[in-house]
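WARN retry 2 of 3 for item q-0093 after timeout on previous attempt; input resubmitted unchanged.
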Amino acid sequence: MRDRGYLFQCTNLDALDESMMKDDTFSAYLGFDATADSLHVGSLLQIMILRHLQKSGCRPVVLVGGATSKVGDPTGKDESRKMLTDEAIATNVDGISKVFEKFLTFGDEKASDAIMVNNDEWLSSLKYLEFLRDMGTYFTINRMLQFESVKQRMAREAPLSFLEFNYMILQAYDFLELSRRYAVKLQLGGSDQWGNIVSGTELTRRVDRNQVFGLTAPLITTSDGKKMGKTEGGAIWLNADKLSPYEYWQFWRNTADADVIRFLKLFTELPLPEIEELSALKGSSINAAKEVLADSATALLHGPECLPKIHETAASLFAAKSSVGGQGGDTSSLSRTSLDRSSLGSVRVTDLFLRLNLTASKKEAKRLIQGGGARIGDVKIEDENKCLEEGDFVDGECVLRAGKKKAGVVVLE
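OK item q-0093 returned
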C-alpha cells in the first residue's frame, strides 16, 4: 500500500501493522453516504484499498450511510446539502451498492468475505436524550471547532447548521457501533476525513477501552491541479447506466502523461515491476501505458469482456474516417439517446450534446460549436442553433462528436 501511494496518515501505523498480522479476521470499513445514485471515480481510490486489503485476507465492511445521508457531511462544502427524502436515499443506496459487487467478494463462506451494512440500522432508532447523555460527554465544542471542515466553513463565513455540526459525532458513533457489532478495527477515508476518523478512534477507546485505527489516503488531483474525476463533461460515474464503459475507458485513455504511472499504481492491479517498466516509455510511446491503464481500470469495473468492442469502437471512430460523413464503424459502445422522427427540425444539437453527456451544459455546447470542436460525423457544426434533420442520419443513427475523443449516438425513432 505504501509503494502504490495509498498511505497518507495513520493513527498508529506500527500497531496497525502488528494487529493485522495477528488477527485472522481483521476487519476494515469504508463509509459512503447515499447522496447520489452512483459513486464517481473520485471514490475509486478507497474502493481499491478495500480490494487490496481483501486480497490480503482482511474482511471489508462497506457502510452505506442511509441515516447520515439525512444530515450531510459538511466537509469541503460552502452550503448545506440538499435534504433527501427516504425514497431518494433508498434509490441511491441501491445505485451505489452495485459498484462494490464489482470490486469485492461478498458472502459468508470465508473470513475475508465482504459485508455491507447500513447505519440506518442503529442511528435512526437512537433516542435523542439518551444519546446526548451517553455520548455527548466525550465531545467538546472546543475540539469540534478545531476540525478543518468547521474552521474552513467559518473562515468563509458560510453558515454551518447545528444539523451538520452533529455529523462528526454520528460518524464517530458509527465506528463505535461497527467495532461492537462486527469487530471492525480500521476505518478508511480520504485525508479530508482525518478529524472525523480520529474522533471515532478516540470515542471507541474511551467508551469501550478498545484500540481501533484510522488510516487516510491522499486526496488525488491530476497534474494540472484539478480534482480527480472532474471533467468538462461532468463527473466520471461508476455505474454503466450513467456513463458507458466506452466513455469510462476514454477517460483513462486521456490521462495526462505526467499522471499515467501514478494512476497505474493506484487504480490497477498491475504488478509494480511491470509499472516500473512502463515508466521508461517517453514521448508518443507513453500512449501504450495509457492504453494499459484504460484497459486495466475498465476491466476491473465493467469486466474484460467489454474491451474488444471498446477497442473496435475507438479504432473505427478515431483511427480512420468513414466514407459516409465519418458516421460509419462500430458505435455500439457509445452513449446513446433517442429522437422521435416528429422532433426533427425542432431539437437543437446543444440539447443533444447535453443529453449524451458530451458537455456539462448547453452553454458549454455552444462554446464547443463556436470553437469548431463540435461535429456531426466529420462535418463541423457551424450554427449553434442547428437542429438535426433527416439527412444528418445514416441508417437511423447520427454520431455527434465533442472534440477528437468524445462521441455519442442519436438514434432516430
